[in-house]
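PROTEIN–LIGAND DATA SHEET

This sheet pairs a single protein chain with one bound small molecule, zinc ion, given as SMILES. Inputs appear in the order they were entered. The predicted three-dimensional arrangement of chain and ligand is reported afterwards as a C-alpha cell string under its own label.
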Amino acid sequence: MYIDTHAHFDLCIEDGDITEEDLLVEMEESGTAFGVQISIDVKGLRWSYDFAKKHRDRGIRFSLGIHPSSRATEIDLESLAALTEEVMVAGDIDLFFGIGETGLDYYRMHQPAAMQQRSFEFQIGLAQHHGVPVIVHSREAMDDTVAILKRLKPGKGIMHCFSGDSTAAAGILDLGMYISFAGNLTYKNAHELHDAAKYVPLDRMLLETDAPFLTPVPFRGKKNRPHYVSHTYKFLAQLRGEKLSSIEDAVYRNFLAVSGAK
Ligand SMILES: [Zn+2]
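PREDICTION REPORTED AS:
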C-alpha cells in the first residue's frame, strides 16, 4: 500500500487535464491508499478541508498552511488560525495531517524575506498549539530555516521534498523531524540525494509526489500525479536494497506516528 504524503490535488485539477474523480480512481487502481492535499494559500484552505471531508473514505487527508511564496498578511494568518481551530473543534483530527506547507523560499522570492519568516514562525506556533506537525518547505534558505526551527522547536515536523546531502539530512534528523523524499529522488544524477536516502533511518522517512511537480522517472517531463508515488517507493527499495514491503510498512507507520491523520 502506497501513501502520497504531499500533493496539490487542486493544482492538478486547475491544470485542466484531469478531473478530481480520475485522480482518485488512479490512486485506487495503483494501490495508493492515502493522499494528502497540501494547502499553499488562503484561498485554498477551505477547499482542502472540504476535499478531505468529501473523500474521507477514499483516503484523502489534508493540511492547512500558507506557502512561503504566497502572501501572508496578519489577516491571512488569522484566517488560517481560525480554520485550524474549526477543524479541531469539529473533531476532524483524523483527516488533518498538519500545518503547512510553510517555510522559506529565497529562490523564487515571491514574498519579502521578512513576511516569509513571520509567516513561518506563526505557523510553527500554530502547529505547536494544536500538537500537529509542521510541514516545511525550504529552498535556497536551509541555514535560516534550520535556525528558526532550532529556536522555536516545533517538536513534530516534516522536511518536505528534501533535496540535500546526508550531512544536511543529519541536521534535520537532529531537530527530531521526519524527512520526506519526492520524485527527484529517482533522477539518475541526484547522487547526493541518493546518499541521503540511504542514510536516513527508515523510521524517520516519508515519501511524496509534490504533484503536479517533480515527476518521478519513468514519467519525468509529464505532469506529476499522486499515484506516481509508487515509482519513488520502488526506486527507494532498490537503492537501499530492501524489500518493497519494508518501505511500504515503514512509511505507513511513520504516516500514522507523525500526525493524528489516519
Ligand atoms: Zn508542495
